[in-house]
Each structure stands twice: as C-alpha cells, then as structure tokens.
UniProtKB/TrEMBL annotation:
Residues 38-54 have a biased composition (Acidic residues). This is DUF3048 domain-containing protein. Keywords: Membrane, Transmembrane, Transmembrane helix. Residues 77-182 form the DUF3048 domain. It comes from marine sediment metagenome. InterPro entries: DUF3048_N (IPR021416), YerB-like_sf (IPR023158). Pfam families: DUF3048. The chain crosses the membrane at residues 12-29. Gene3D superfamilies: YerB-like (3.50.90.10).
Length: 185
C-alpha cells in the first residue's frame, strides 16, 4: 500500500488502531476478579480498655504490663542485648550535619537512635543517641538549637554539639543538661 497517495488506506489503518486501543481499554477496565472485602473501620471510644490482645489473640491485663520490669542487659533504646561494660553508662546525644556536602557522616551506624529534624532553611540535622556502642569518629558535629536539646533531653544524655547562638546557651542551661560543647573552653 502506498500511504502517501491512498487516503482511504490511511483512514482504514487509523480506524483499526483506534478500535484496537478502545477494545484494550474496555477489556482491561471490565476485568472481573475477586474483590477484597474491606475491614470495618473501628470506631473511636472514650472508654479505656483494661485488657489488651497480643498478636496471638490472647488477652493481657494492662496492670501486669505496667508492673513489668526490664531484666537482664537490655538496651532500653534499641531492645537489643547490651554488654556489661556499657550497662550503667549514660547515653551521649550528638548533633550531626546532614547537608549533601557532609555525607557520608561518620559513626551514625553505631547510634541506637537517630532523629532527623528540619532546621532553618529546610536543611535537616541529626540528633544521634549513642548508648550501646562507642563510635571512634562521629560527625561532622554541628551547632545546637533548643528544639534539638529538648529531643535529646528525653534520654538524660550528655549533649554534644559545636556552639550555638547566645540565647541558645541560656535555654540549654535552663534544661539542666550536661553538655559537651566543642566551641567552649
């Protein structure tokens, strides 16, 4: 067929392609299959349940859970076992840079918990909390901000950073934290 001269051939080929496209859309859209039944959405209630079900469906009394104590050398931050050497040591929370130029950071893999927080200007920084392992090198260490200090404070750590603005020192002092400031004497 010479499509350049035969207008009827062009129309037939175009019509055929449109028909194939329409049939494809119809057959894929009308596909029948098993529909999954949606689980009913639980309604919120103001009542506090005294019993909780675990994964196996057994009921657990909340009073028994509240009275449980962690026994053995378990890291309360990670839930993993911890050596006797670091059992009674305090955590250390370190401010770590996260700009593209600072990557890869050192020592993040040894942190028990890492919080990524948006800073001024949309950049993020990490609050890395170490309690199980010592990192030989950690960093790059960055300056503190009050909201980072508040996150770190929940772990009663030694808070390590590299400087802050003058009002920031006052706020951190009021939080009554032990600090390790690389920018001070």
């Amino acid at each position: 067929m010479d499509f350049g001269k035969n207008k009827t051939a062009k129309i037939l080929v175009f019509s055929f392609l449109v028909a194939v496209l329409i049939l494809t859309v119809i057959f894929t859209g009308c596909k029948t299959g098993k529909t999954s039944e949606e689980e009913p959405i639980a309604e919120e209630t103001d009542e506090i349940s005294e019993e909780v079900e675990d994964d196996s469906g057994k009921k657990i009394d909340e009073d028994k859970i509240a009275g449980m104590e962690i026994t053995g050398n378990i890291n309360i931050l990670s839930g993993l076992g911890i050596s006797g050497e670091v059992w009674n040591s305090r955590p250390i929370a370190v401010m770590i840079e996260n700009s593209p130029d600072s990557r890869p950071q050192s020592g993040l893999i040894y942190a028990d918990m890492v919080f990524e927080v948006v800073d001024e200007g949309g950049v993020t920084r990490y609050v890395a909390v170490y309690s199980s392992y010592d990192a030989d090198i950690t960093g790059p260490v960055r300056s503190a901000r009050p909201y980072y200090a508040e996150i770190a404070r929940s772990f009663d750590p030694i808070y390590a950073f590299w400087g802050t603005y003058p009002e920031g020192y006052d706020i951190i002092r009021k939080l009554d934290m032990d600090v390790l400031d690389g920018n001070s004497d």
